[in-house]
Specification:
224 residues; 0% strand; 73% helix; mainly alpha
Length: 224
């Protein structure tokens, strides 16, 4: 028993267990009648597949996202995408920073395994940067999309904001989920939609450590 608990403390195993837990919670939520447009419970395989795809940001689906899932279900999917994109242990580390203003050795090792930081000393900087980079990009992209949905497609403000935020989260985390049956094909000729999505995909694909290093380099150049 002791060896089992000791094994679970290994950073890599903690990360795997955390992602598995997120998938499990997402599966349960997506199986609820509230999550389906029809008001009927979703079968286990569909809910599990969708939850896994969202957490692992693969974009694979077995049902039409806007057709099958209710607004609640779509919000659950967006939440799973965000959790998967940031990383369970990154979120835990951020919480630890807010509460204690420090990260213990075990937490830093765990965060290192998730963020792939090269040195232990870089973990605190990476973890803080995760929130800043993610929120900054997603907010800007969501704002741009919201304005376009409002002015170009006459969406109500709430609908425009909802679609803007969902697609900003999905794009930045490279998740591939969309709120339209044809994905975003209908906007293929609309640069005001496509360009923000492209920027979000590239920015998210580069990864947090890359943006932090670019920021450090920019600051160093400006100080010269």
């Amino acid at each position: 028993m002791t060896s089992t608990f000791s094994g679970l403390r290994h950073p890599a195993r903690v990360v795997v267990a955390a992602f598995a837990s997120a998938v499990a919670v997402g599966t349960v939520l997506l199986m609820l009648p509230l999550s389906a447009e029809s008001g009927e419970p979703t079968d286990l395989v569909t809910a599990l597949f969708t939850s896994t795809s969202a957490v692992c940001v693969t974009g694979l689906v077995v049902v039409d996202t806007p057709g099958h899932w209710s607004t609640f279900g779509e919000i659950v999917i967006a939440g799973l995408i965000q959790v998967g994109g940031l990383g369970i242990m990154t979120l835990a580390s951020l919480l630890g920073l807010l509460i204690t203003r420090r990260i213990g050795l075990r937490m830093r090792l765990t965060a290192q395994a998730e963020t792939k930081a090269l040195e232990l000393g870089d973990v605190r900087r990476v973890v803080k940067g995760v929130a800043l980079v993610s929120v900054s990009f997603e907010t800007v992209i969501a704002a741009a999309l919201t304005v376009r949905f409002l002015t170009g497609y006459d969406y109500a403000f709430g609908t425009a904001l909802y679609h803007g935020v969902f697609h900003a989260i999905s794009a930045f985390n490279n998740a591939g989920f969309a709120l339209y049956p044809d994905s975003l094909t209908r906007f293929a000729t609309d640069g005001w939609i496509c360009l923000p999505i492209v920027v979000a995909v590239i920015a998210g694909g580069l990864g947090f450590p890359v943006w932090i290093e670019l920021w450090r380099h920019a600051r160093h150049v400006l100080r010269r």
